[in-house]
Request: fold
Amino acid sequence: MAEFDASVAAQVNRMVERTIARSMKGFDYIRAPAAAVGRTPKDVVLERGTLRLYHYHPQADEIYRVPVLLVMATTNKAYVFDLAPGQSMVEFLLKRGFDVFVLDWEPPQQFERNLDLSDYTQDFIPACIRRISDLTGEPDVSIVGYCMGGVLACIYAATHPDGPLKNLACLTTPIDWHQMGLVRVWQDPRYFDVDRMVDTLGIVPADFIMQSFEMQRPASRVAGQLRVWEQMWNDEFVKSFRAFERWGNETLPLAGEYVRQMTKELLWKNKLVNGTLVIDGKSADLANIRVPVLSVCAEHDHLAPYDSVKPLIEKVSSTDKREMKLKGGHVSLIAGPNAVKRMWPQLDAWLAERST
Amino acid sequence: MSDKPQDKPTDKPAKNLDESYREMVTQWERNFDSFANQFMGTESFSRGMNQAQDAQLALRRTFQEFMGKSLENMNMPSREDLVKVAESVQSVDRRLARIEDMLSLMLGNASPSSTATPSRKGPPRTKKPPKHAGGA
Reply:
């Protein structure tokens, strides 16, 4: 009985302390400026319209021969790879001895509304690889693509079977677009007039993209605020939450032609999994890929569910290929405390063996 | 009948209020999302949402046309005109970049048109994977 009383007293005591801390820190939280993100030292080594290529300063005395190019999804900023010191995939890879480049995107302007898959996969990625080769003197590169960045990387790899590409790692990369749940229902060709949307808007606004993400988990924003209120006393949690919140809010608009092509070719006709996608007259059949391939998916990914990711490993012709299914969601797979323990060490180990 | 012995005290410590709150939020989020997804995953929702979007786009197009004509009457450039100018500038920019690349190739340098910062000499590229690294 005495033990029980002491336990209740301790809980009440902690509750009072945390309530006071919440009140004090809650005020700071509301008036604080946007969280600082992407602070690992880097140079912009290529910029052209929507494209930005960053080269991060190496942080090891000796590095692997093959540079790594991280290709970000076109819908979001690449600082999710570099949220904060200790929570940065880029920093982790640098410390593990990789020479890291990141392909990031700025919001496309109206004059870039005609950009399509061909621009992204036959112009932007090859331009980045040429630039990396200029800077490093190395003939090949490993590509790590995240979500739609992985799709672009796959199309690049399939249309450039002779490289220069050493390894391909795809993180939560949808291949079978007919498995994409709600998006497929909402963009049903009987009801969704993609031509009207693209012809009217030119650039598909960020709000539209963000809405389509958030509508798939409509409670997540409110639940996030409820969680951060409870954890307001915990500075580390709040710091991490604010960085993620900023990233989520900075969703990018998309070039209209690119959206039209993705909707018709990938979502409706499912050409990536059927092997019938043709870009600039070149077949983007995944069977053309022969380099080592790693496909990583998340158990609770609602944007790129496992069934949509699964065909990558089945379709590529590589003899060295591996699939990993890890705990987590679409974003927590690549950033945050779980990624530090789960995905990053696996990616490091896989790349290390293939980067000499 | 349960698999667990009923007469033994559980090994788990009693949940405190914070844990209960977190669990409650998670459960609420799951239930709400599940309910909303059932509703939003229907054909009728898709049809309704897209009809609303089409109406919004039609309104926007009408407004764009009205604004375009008004600006034309006032002898002022429309957004479309400015986009065309930007496209021309972009096209000239690309050509210049190509010419610079060609010149640098002819001179045997790295492509300077794209160079925001000069190439830096980094650490040696001699690192080998640790013996325990497993990837295959």
Q: What stands out?
A: The first helix of chain A runs from residue 2 to 31.
